[in-house]
Each structure stands twice: as structure tokens, then as C-alpha cells.
Amino acid sequence: MISQDQAAAIAFHVCGAPPNDPRRGWDLTEFDAGWLITSRAKAARGGETRVIERDSGRVMSFPAAVPPSRILADYDQVRNDGTMELCGFSSLTFSPTSRTRLPAG
User: Fold this and answer.
1) 18-41, pLDDT tens digit by residue?
2) Domain assignments of the chain as residue spans, ordered by start
3) Residue 13, exposed/middle/buried by CB under 10 A (0-12, 13-18, 19+)?
4) Are the C-beta atoms of 61 and 15 separated by less than 8 Å?
5) Distance (Å) of CA 89 to CA 43, 44, 69, 84, 103
6) For the whole model, what pTM was predicted?
7) Where are the alpha helices (DSSP H) in 1-105?
8) Which one of 44, 57, 66, 92 has the minimum C-beta count within 10 Å?
């Protein structure tokens, strides 16, 4: 299970900026399946949406054709419309007692 702090660390890595960055900032919206990442720059242009899955920490990207409202309401139905991102976390895992990323092994 991924905590909110861990989701924020993943979002920071995926977005390449802190949440308060004026050009590349982002917001996390918690829902049953995990966290929706809303990138402020992409939201203004209608770009893809990302989800950090709560159970696995996997990051899924969804095309603009899948609106965030549908992701939040019917994630299990739209999951297959997304693509798993390879964002460097495939070889990392989180320690259950800290926010430290440790090599998977």
C-alpha cells in the first residue's frame, strides 16, 4: 500500500517539479484506487492524466479522451484504457516504515 506521502514523492518524480512550481506544479486528488495527478500545465492544455495506484504504486497515464471525472468514478472500468509509465520506480520499492526508496531485491 502506498501512503499519501509516498504518492507525493512519486508525483514529484513523474512531474519533475514540486507541487508549488508555477509552471510544472501539480495536485493530488485521493480516491479509492489511489491518487489522481493533475498537472497544472497539462490541465490548461487538455493533456494526459496520471494515476498512482494505491495498491502497487504503479503510475498509469490516460489519454485526454478519458476525462479525470471518469477515472475518479469508474477506475476499474477505464484502467485498461491507460498505459503503465516506466518512470524509474520499476527497480525501486518503498520501505513500509519510511519514505525512503530502497533498491528492490
Assistant:
1) 999 988 889 999 999 999 998 877
2) 4-91
3) middle
4) no
5) 24, 27, 26, 11, 9
6) 0.77
7) 4-15, 40-45, 68-73, 75-78
8) 44
